[in-house]
Amino acid sequence: HWELVKGHCSACHSPALVTQNRGSRQAWLEMIRWMQETQGLWAFDEQTEKAILDYLEKNYAPSALYRRAPLPRSLMPENPYAGD
Predict the structure, then answer these.
(1) What crossing angle do the helices spanning 2-9 and 46-59 adopt, rounded to 10°?
(2) Cα angle at 71 between 13 and 33, to 5 degrees?
(3) Cβ(76)–Cβ(38) under 8 Å?
(4) In this predicted model, what pLDDT tens digit does every residue of 9-64 receive, in sequence order?
(5) Which pTM was predicted?
(6) Distance in angstroms (rounded) separating the CA atoms of residues 80 and 60
(7) Residue ranges in the chain assigned as alpha helix (H)
(8) Helix axes of 25-38 and 46-59: crossing angle, nearest 10 degrees
């Protein structure tokens, strides 16, 4: 499902941002939710979200080579461009 991930994610940022990160399925879901709530990412239908999470979980899961744990959602910056 790389094409699906690339199609949705590269609308806002480089696909390299995806490939340089790692996370559990829950961590990826939390990143998606954060982007939807604060960065203007659109909602996915259930099938699309499942396919994206399946791909990310399989190919970008945590590993011993990962440089650091993802930031907790509470530490993510506010989006200064978010509409009210």
Answers:
(1) 110
(2) 60
(3) yes
(4) 888 888 888 888 899 999 999 999 999 999 999 999 999 999 999 999 999 998 76
(5) 0.72
(6) 29
(7) 2-9, 15-19, 25-38, 46-59
(8) 130
